[in-house]
């Protein structure tokens, strides 16, 4: 009897262990199929785009929305979609991709998940220069250009004053926080000294908003993504090796100086144009790369998947800001801050060994 019970216990234990191992192996095999993950995420993003077009038009119905999209529906609905909804959706997709890809590159380079453009001051630098272009130099193409210059200035100051990335990027992050605080104070000073009309025009660039974004800024952002995303995907292999150590990366043929400068330049360009389009939308650059790592594998760098997650999260936050308290619209930057701040606190409260990538 005892032998029989022992046999059943052994069989149950071995079956449970091997069953769980098989399930984990199957999950890992799914996570290591990046193209399948990209197709699935692209499908989810497409479904969200259709929902963003449909929401608010429930009385007309989904069929009327589809007819309006092909130019065979109601004229007012067609005007609403093409003049208001679609430009806003395109702005959310473009800016979210810029924030997500920039966050992935900077986190991997610094070997620290807290090293995002928002935290290290790139967003505040771009915002300060964008607000300056509205308050002091209101030219149509000046905002993207000056936002890019502001992000580059913040990155140069943080990287130069910290003496490099340091151990796990801590010096770079701390210096970036200080630089960001200075640029934030400069933004508030310019708004306080400007007229009411100028302050109202610059307000979206201080909180993050997708309402009535300039069409030129959207197309500039897509043009930026056209060149920067392939460059970021090219840098992903070298960044994967930089996650180990400098000695190992050099022995495997990685040029540290070239890789670091190209990564910083790519991050600055993506962040500058994204802030010029949507303002300093926080937490997208923090959450999107983390979601991409959980979606495929924690030890791989996926710039394209991070960009898609950034687009998905930003569009989802914008739809939520439009509908949750309708007819009052909440800026998308406030939605991402409310939802993303608990995640940031959780990340800070984790064990220190989990900080490094």
Distance between the termini: 52 Å
In helices, the fraction of residues equals over 70%
CATH topology: ABC transporter involved in vitamin B12 uptake, BtuC
Q: Detail the poorly predicted runs.
A: 1-21, 26-30, 351-357
Order of helices and strands: HHHHHHHHHHHHHHH
Number of strands: 0
Query: Which structural class should the secondary elements be placed in?
Result: mainly alpha
Number of helices: 15
Averaged pLDDT, please? Answer: 80
Rg from C-alpha positions?
23 Å
For the report, how would you describe the main beta sheet? none
Q: CATH architecture, please?
A: Orthogonal Bundle
Structural notes for this entry:
The protein is mainly α and 357 residues long. The protein has one domain (34-354): ABC transporter involved in vitamin B12 uptake, BtuC (Orthogonal Bundle). It is globular. It contains 15 helices and no strands.
SSE topology:
Layout: H1 2-31, H2 34-54, H3 62-69, H4 75-110, H5 122-135, H6 142-162, H7 170-193, H8 196-202, H9 204-207, H10 215-242, H11 246-251, H12 256-278, H13 284-295, H14 303-323, H15 332-349
Helix pairs in contact: 2-14, 3-4, 4-10, 4-12, 4-13, 4-14, 5-6, 5-7, 5-8, 5-12, 6-7, 6-12, 10-12, 13-14, 14-15
């Amino acid at each position: 009897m005892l032998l029989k019970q022992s046999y059943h216990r052994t069989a149950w234990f071995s079956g449970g262990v091997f069953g769980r191992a098989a399930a984990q192996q199957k999950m890992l095999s799914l996570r290591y199929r990046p193209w399948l993950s990209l197709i699935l995420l692209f499908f989810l993003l497409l479904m969200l785009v259709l929902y963003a077009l449909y929401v608010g038009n429930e009385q007309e119905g989904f069929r009327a929305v589809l007819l309006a999209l092909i130019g065979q529906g109601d004229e007012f609905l067609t005007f609403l979609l093409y003049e208001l909804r679609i430009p806003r959706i395109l702005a959310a997709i473009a800016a979210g991709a810029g924030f997500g890809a920039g966050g992935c590159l900077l986190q991997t380079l610094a070997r620290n998940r807290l090293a995002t453009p928002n935290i290290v001051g790139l967003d505040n630098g771009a915002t300060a220069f964008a607000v300056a272009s509205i308050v002091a130099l209101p030219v149509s193409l000046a905002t993207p250009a000056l936002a890019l210059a502001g992000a580059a200035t913040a990155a140069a100051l943080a990287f130069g004053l910290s003496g490099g990335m340091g151990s796990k990027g801590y010096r770079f992050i701390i210096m970036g926080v200080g630089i960001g605080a200075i640029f934030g104070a400069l933004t508030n000073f310019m708004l306080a000294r400007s007229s009411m009309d100028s302050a109202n025009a610059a307000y979206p660039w201080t909180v993050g908003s997708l309402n009535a974004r300039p069409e030129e800024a959207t197309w500039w952002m897509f043009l930026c993504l056209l060149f920067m995303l392939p460059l970021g995907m090219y840098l992903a292999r070298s960044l994967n090796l930089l996650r180990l150590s400098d000695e190992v990366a050099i022995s495997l043929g990685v040029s540290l100086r070239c890789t670091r400068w190209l990564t910083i330049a790519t991050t600055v360009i993506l962040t500058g144009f994204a802030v010029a389009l949507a303002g300093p939308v926080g937490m997208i650059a923090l959450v999107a790369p983390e979601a991409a790592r959980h979606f495929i594998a924690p030890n791989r760098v996926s710039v394209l998947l991070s960009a898609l997650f950034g687009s998905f999260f930003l569009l989802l936050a914008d739809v939520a800001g439009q509908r949750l308290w309708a007819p009052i619209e909440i800026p998308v930057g406030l939605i991402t801050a409310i939802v993303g701040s608990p995640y940031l606190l959780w990340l800070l409260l984790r064990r220190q060994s989990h900080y490094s990538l």
